[in-house]
Predict the structure.
Amino acid sequence: MNQLQLADYVVFIVYLTGVSAYGLFVYYRKRKAATNSQEFFLAEGSLTWWAIGASLIASNISAEHFIGMSGSGFALGLAISTYEWMAAATLIIVAVFFIPI
């Protein structure tokens, strides 16, 4: 079946509404413009850890994950998953040590 079901639409709408509501909540809570790069990239310290983590993961996902990794997984099996485990470890290192700088 190549058509979206009602559950697909519901999940999409709920996710889009939740992300938009959280973004508007943060926006209206702090309307002051960022004055330097630290305030801009770290959202002035107003975002929670899970929002920053979700942003890191979302920016890491691309067509490579949906197309390339599926083909590699088919060709190589579970060996390709080590690539993703290393990517997760790398993102943690970046988030803890490099982003605060």
